[in-house]
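Fold this sequence, please.
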Amino acid sequence: MYASLTNISLDFQRMFVSASEINDGELQAICDKSYCSDDFDDEAFIPVKKLGSAFIAELFHGPTFCFKDLGMRGVVNILSHYSSLRNRKVTILVATTGDTGPAAVSAVSDAANPLLSLVVHYPKGQISDFQRRSLTTVESPFVKIVCFEGGGDDMDWPIKQTLLENNDNEGERTFVGINSYNIGRPLLQMVHFIWIYLRMAEHLGIVPGDKDHMIDMVIPTGAMGNLTGGYMAKQMGIPIGKLCAGVNINDITHRVIESGEFHRKRIKKTLSDAINIEVPYNFERIAYYVTGCNSVLIKGWMTEMERTQQLTIEKEWHRRLKLDFCSACVTDDQLCEALRLVSDKLDYVSDPHTAVAMSAALQLGYEFIEMSLEGMMPVVIVATASPCKFKEQMTVALGVEGWKSWEANKFPAGAYKILDANEIEPYYFPQIDGVLLSEVQSKWRQSMLDIVHTHL
């Protein structure tokens, strides 16, 4: 049996954090708290199971039933350690389209450090009822929740501007972002890719590290944080083959992989809202590694993107991108079809975002339902959330009776606590008729800072 997830995380983090910053005992305590068995509903933490002729890695057994618990808790516990070490207030600012926020709320609430606080913002009507309740039912003096009117990315500017002004902040508080643009998120998500690879090696009977036996991975993709974590793990030597992005019709990731066009478009609502992203900020990191760490080139690319909202990468770099990545775009109809097909044929029910990855796998030729993959590279589909979070979307895909059957037999016991708890009214940031979005965002930013300085 390989090392535990906690020990893998400990050894991995020690490669990036010196003992002079966090000693062995402190780092062990951070890892133990981040991967506490009491917080997970599966003793394996991340079970990797056979699914037809493929495999599925379930990353959703943490306290908010989403993969983001895995990286988030580690980052929050590190921030908590440093806030205490420096005796300085740290306030985390989050904009969420569904899953990042609940994971951050759970982690900060459990850290219970008076110096560490959190403000989470979510777009009205664009997250599921369960996701909203995961935010609004947590009673913690260290957490404040805001609902805003607008698109999923509309709160990004107020948060970004506040983070950029940190250098001018000589007071007693530091602001920190915790969405996956925070390098800690994809860095710690590398841990679960290492774990998945080791479990796959165990299943397949191969020697870990054998470059002759690469493993492809299909990942539901929004901001590209998980895709980046997988790519960084590959850069460090984990024998990962193709990293395959399953995206919905908000398909900028698919377009840049397939045609080299990193062009912004407005968000359209889908059944997989948590991966509705206009501009995935982690593309900059992937491009950095694809270009051989050419920081000057990447700075030019990102400047062009910010100026014009369109970047078309050169053919040679696009060719190199396609060496490691592939992708498929999935409509809501295709999502539902894949979800029903896997349920009917393999007796496995996934959430809508994992169904995007399943449909993408089928489009990309991984016929894991009907055919053997003999002669092809082994493939693992990354399951990023539990179906329990998405009643409305699951009912669309499976029908009322299909959802009721799953709910009666598979609904996690811990999730009922969220459904039964009383909601706390969030703060509300409205749109203002006749006022430019930039002006509204400025008002939202001031309101956010008022909340922080008055209540945290």
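The chain has a mean pLDDT of 93. DSSP finds 17 helices and 13 strands in the chain.
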